[in-house]
Amino acid sequence: MLDGLVSDTLNPGFAILESSEVLKNEGQDGLIKFLDRRIGYFVVDSNRILKEPISDLERERAEIFLGRVKKYREIYPSTATDTPYYAQATKIINAFKQTDKKPASSINLQERLDQLRQMACETQL
Description:
It is a single chain. The chain is built from four helices and no strands. The protein has 125 residues and is mainly α. The termini are close together.
């Protein structure tokens, strides 16, 4: 079935459309607040995911995301302070420490290709 592929295509498409609608209807400040709200939600959700049994590659992706948000928030504090996720996301980001293990991205190319093939097979099931 192609449901996963369709979702992988449509979900970002809907997100971009929604962002564009917010920009057109609420202006730049409204868009920034909208995106800050979504970043907070994804910080909380990514932190939850890290507590689950996931692959090393996905764990690395979640940690990279949280690390990037932490650096971003040091420069640009959230404008979505009145949202349900603000306090929780702020606490998670302030406590987040990037792990110093060998990143999955540094494994050899053949191993990486094998991992991607396996992931592709699993998503087709």
